[in-house]
Amino acid sequence: GGGAYGAAKAGGSFDLVRFVQQPQVLARIVSAVFALIVFACLVGDGYSSLPEDPHLFCIFNHNEDACRYGIGIGVLAFLACIFFFMVDVYFPQISNTTDRKYLVLADLGFSGLWTFLWFIGFCFLTNQWSWTRPGDVYIGADSARAAITFSFFSIFSW
């Protein structure tokens, strides 16, 4: 039946299968996986060192900000996905339409902001990767490309 802000009337029982089949829940799961991939690629192989110097540097043109930005938005996006996933679980139990409205607007606003930040991250990582000398990257090139690719995919999943 009819409800407020895209959910059924408050107080119904929780159906896991129906919940997981909702488009916003599927998009949130995909966004969390993409954020986890970007974060893991940059933490795992985003830093390297030269054989003669044990000091770690970011493989994106030795620009520490590129790695920090990718890791930062990846971690925050993953945590936000978990938070909004919990909101999605709890949402049908909220009877106050004003609270529902604010949660939907917060979700919409955060998703818009994070879409923009993923776009900036994709452009930044791609630019820094294009300036990276091939001789500076012994390992981690595939992880760098994966971080760029999933940053691009994240633009659309958010």
From TrEMBL:
<comment type="similarity">
    <text>Belongs to the synaptogyrin family.</text>
</comment>
<feature type="domain" description="MARVEL">
    <location>
        <begin position="19"/>
        <end position="158"/>
    </location>
</feature>
<feature type="transmembrane region" description="Helical">
    <location>
        <begin position="25"/>
        <end position="49"/>
    </location>
</feature>
<protein>
    <submittedName>
        <fullName>SNG2 protein</fullName>
    </submittedName>
</protein>
<feature type="transmembrane region" description="Helical">
    <location>
        <begin position="103"/>
        <end position="125"/>
    </location>
</feature>
<dbReference type="InterPro" id="IPR016579">
    <property type="entry name" value="Synaptogyrin"/>
</dbReference>
<feature type="transmembrane region" description="Helical">
    <location>
        <begin position="69"/>
        <end position="91"/>
    </location>
</feature>
<keyword id="KW-1133">Transmembrane helix</keyword>
<keyword id="KW-0472">Membrane</keyword>
<dbReference type="InterPro" id="IPR008253">
    <property type="entry name" value="Marvel"/>
</dbReference>
<dbReference type="Pfam" id="PF01284">
    <property type="entry name" value="MARVEL"/>
</dbReference>
<dbReference type="GO" id="GO:0030672">
    <property type="term" value="C:synaptic vesicle membrane"/>
</dbReference>
<dbReference type="GO" id="GO:0031594">
    <property type="term" value="C:neuromuscular junction"/>
</dbReference>
<keyword id="KW-0812">Transmembrane</keyword>
